[in-house]
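Reminder: ligand-aware prediction takes two inputs, not one.
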Amino acid sequence: MRIDGHTLVLGLIGDPVEHTLSPLIHNTFAEKLHINSAYLPFHVRNEEDALEKAVHGAFSLGITGLNVTVPYKTEVIKYLVSVDPLAAKIGAVNTLVRTSDGYTGCNTDILGLERDLKRHGVCLEKLSEVLIIGAGGAARAAACLCGERGVRSLYVINRSYERAKALAEDLHRYFPGMEIVLLSDSDNDARKLPDGILAIQCTSAGLYPDTDTLPVQSGEIYRRIGFAYDLIYTPKETAFLKKCRSSGREGTECVNGTGMLLYQAAASYERWMQAAGAGGSIDTGILDEIGRKLFLQTGRNTQGSIVLTGFMGSGKTTVGKELAEMLGLKLLDTDCIIEQREGRSINEIFADEGEAYFRDLETGLLRELAGKDRQEAAVYATGGGIVLRDENRELLHKAGTVVWLRVTAADVVRRLEGDSTRPLLEGEDKEQRIARLIAMREDLYSESADIIIDAGSLTARKIAAGIMEKTGYGGQHENSGDQRAES
Ligand code: NDP
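Here is what comes back for the chain with NDP:
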C-alpha cells in the first residue's frame, strides 16, 4: 500500500473496533482499483463528547469518509450536516461522506442487504409479505427497506414485545399503507404467517461465541419460512439457518450475511470515491476475491478451515481438492496422514492392530488439527468412520466448519465400481450392506454437520461451489460452466 501526501484517508469509528473486517475489505478495494486510499479502524471510546470530537476532528484532519458502527449509528446523526431520507427514517447511519461543510450520512447496510437478496433471486418489490425477526437497529433498517419497496404486510417477532411495538409505531408513521403484524414466538401466532415467507433474521442471537442460540423457538415459524436470510455471518451457518434447513420446509433456501457485509462496504467505498473525484467502480471479480478472503476469516474458529465428512465414495478427497484450489488452501487427508505416519495402509492397520487402534490414531490427529495453536486454515478430508466416536464429533467442530457430503448406497456402488481395495464392496448384496451402514451412521454425520450437501449426482466442482455458496460468498462460481467429470 502506498501512503503519501495524496492518500485518501478512510476509516471506521466505533467501540469496540478490534474485530472489524472492514480494513481488509476497503484496502483490497483500493489495491484492486489502483486508488491511493487507506482505511483504518479508529477506536472512539464511549465517553462524554468523544464522538462529537471524533467527527469534527476527522473533518479537520481531511478524512474523506468514515464508517460508523456500534454504538454510534444513531448518535452520530447529531454531528452531520445532512442525512439521506431513508437513513433518517431508519434513524441510523453507517457511512459518512465528506462535503465542503462537514459530513453527510447515509445507510449502506440496507443497500447491501437489498443487493445480496437480489443476488439470490429475491426482489422485495415483488413480495407481498416479509417476516422480520428482531427489533433492534438492523431490524429497523430491514423493515424500512421493506416499506420503501412496497411490501404490503410485514410480520415482526422480537424477544421483547415493547421494542417490537415501538418499531411498529414508527413504521405505521412512515409507511401508512404497510400492514404491520406483531407476532409472539408461539405456534399459535406463527400460523398467521403465510407459507413460504421470506424471513430476515436481524437479531444477534446465534452470533459467535453463543452459536447455539436460536432467535425464535416456535417450530411452526421454521415450518413457514421458505427463504431464510440471517444477517449474522459468524458462524457461517447460524443455529437459525441450521434449524431452517433441518426442521423447516423442504428446499428452504438459507443465506448468511457475508454478502450484505461485502455489498454495504462496496456501496460506501464507491460513494467516498465519487465524492473525492477518484471514480472507481467495484466489479464482481473484485467482490468475489474479497468474498473468498472473508470466507476464510468469518468461520466459527478464526482459522476458517473446512472439514469434509461422509461415507466412503462420497467424494471427500475429490471435492476437497477442488475446494482447496478455489480457496488457495492446503488439502489435508486424515487417512493419508495416518498412513504416512504409520508407514502402512489403513487396511493393514486394521488387519494388524484392529479398529480401536486406528480410531485412537484418528482421534489423536483430530486433536492436533483442532488445537488452538494451529494457525493455518486448511480443507480436511476425513475418514468415513470418523464420526463414530463422540469425542471425534466434538473435535470436528473445533477443527472448522463441518460439511457432510451425503450420498446414497447406490451412489457409493456406482462411484466405487472396480475399486478392489475396499472389502465392503466385495460379494453379493453390497448395496444393501452399504445402505445399512449408511443408515447406522446417518444421525452421527447429521449431528456433527454444520452444512449438508446432497453430493450424489453432482460433480466435484459443483459441490465445491455449493459449499462456497452455503458457507459464505460463492458468487464467482454461480454461473461457472462445469465440463469436468467427477472421479
Ligand atoms: P441491536 O443490539 O440493535 O438489536 C439486537 C436484537 O437482537 C434485538 O432485537 C434483541 O431483542 C435481539 N436479541 C439479542 N439477543 C437475543 C436472544 N438471545 N434471543 C432473541 N433475540 C435476541 O443489534 P443490531 O440490530 O445492530 O444487529 C443485529 C445483528 O445484525 C448483529 O448480529 C449484527 O452483527 C448483524 N448485522 C449484520 C450486518 C451485515 O452486514 N451482515 C449489518 C448490521 C448488523 P430485544 O429487543 O428483546 O433485546
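Residues 109, 112, 134-139, 158-160, 163, 202-205, 207, 213, 215, 231-233, 257, 260-261, 264 surround NDP (CB under 6 Å). The CA atoms of residues 347 and 421 lie 8 Å apart. We will return to this case in the review session.
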